[in-house]
Amino acid sequence: MEKEEKVFQKLSKKARGCMLVNEIILAGICTIILAIVWVKWKDTLAVANWIWAIVAVVWVISLIAPFFRYERYRYCFSNEDIDVIEGFLFVERNIVPIERLHKVAMESGPIDRIFGLAKVLVTTAGGDVTIRFLEKEVAEQIVETLKTRINQYAVMQREG
């Protein structure tokens, strides 16, 4: 039996913008928290002056991380499995066999909706896999395709 070649899909350019906005919001929250810590303990904390260096590092990472994540993010559907590769410093790869799928769902948060994006959540007996930053139409198509495959496997299990 010949194995099929996997063809990984890249995300749309909208995904990079969504990742950047998410990171900026997170960096802003971290900055506020660190500013509160600095104001409250600036006279007693020995490392109070280092807080602003930490804020600078947080912002630099927040501004470059989306570009690396975008370039590394890939997903692939084959007849046998779903394969998702993502990450910034640590690259994670999740491979889920199609026959183990139990549930498929689609979610879209407020920032996702601004960019016209959604995520597909795939549930198996062993856990969940999420395919993030998909254009809404692509996410809907993936959900329908996976739902059809789940139903086909369920029918095959009942018949034999």
Main attributes of the structure:
160 residues, alpha+beta, 3-stranded antiparallel β-sheet, 6 strands, 51% helix
Structure notes:
The longest helix has 29 residues. The protein has 160 residues and is an alpha+beta fold. It has a three-stranded antiparallel β-sheet with strand order 1-2-3. The chain has a three-stranded antiparallel β-sheet with strand order 4-5-6. Helices cover 51% and strands 26% of the residues. It starts with 12 loop residues before the first helix and ends with a helix. The radius of gyration is 21 Å and the shape is elongated.
Topology, please?
Elements: H1 13-41, H2 50-72, E1 74-77, E2 81-87, E3 91-97, E4 101-107, H3 110-115, E5 117-124, E6 127-135, H4 136-159
Antiparallel strand pairs: 1-2, 2-3, 4-5, 5-6
Helix pairs in contact: 1-2
**Elements, N to C (H/E):** HHEEEEHEEH
**Cα shape:** elongated
Count of helical segments? 4
The count of β-strands is: 6
Proportion of residues in β-strands: 25-35%
Q: Biggest sheet: strands side by side, in what order?
A: 1-2-3
Class based on secondary structure composition and strand pairing: alpha+beta
**What is the end-to-end distance?**
22 Å
Low-pLDDT regions:
none
Largest sheet descriptor: 3 strands, antiparallel
Helical content stands at 40-55%
Nearest-integer average pLDDT: 89
Cα-based radius of gyration, to the nearest Å: 21 Å
